[in-house]
Write a structure and sequence with these properties.
The chain has about 150 residues and is of the alpha+beta class. About 35% of the residues lie in helices and about 35% in strands. The protein starts with a helix and ends with a strand.
Amino acid sequence: MSISPSKLNTYLMFKLPSAYFCGVRTKFLDDNKCLVTVKHGWFNQNPFNSMFWAVQGMAAELTTGALVMSKIRESGKKISMLVANNNASFSKKATGRINFECVDGHLVDEALKNAIETGEGQTVWMNSVGRNSEGIEVSRFNFEWTLKVKSEK
């Protein structure tokens, strides 16, 4: 069974309710790209009348994590995934609807292939860019995912 945007949104509601209640929603997912959206509002704002950085981070992380989860599921292997590092930059106030996009699915393919072939843990840096409704970049997040094939006991 493949992962779809609606399945991810249901997953958020039950497993990551803080993201769900802040309005984080997956809109698109394919083999290389994931699009997640969140709208600035009273519930997810900071004292400066823009979207709280952590809400942006949840949406951005989901774009990368959804691609990783999807690729792991496709592999049929038991593989652990964990964020080891991340960094972000903010270039404009995040107001209105912010769309986060990651197009790094191809990077996951290579890391998973190496993890499965060698049995050694692999890392992959993935980028997610947040843009407002005018297409202007408001933030950029980078996540270093670690991938390791679980030993069979």
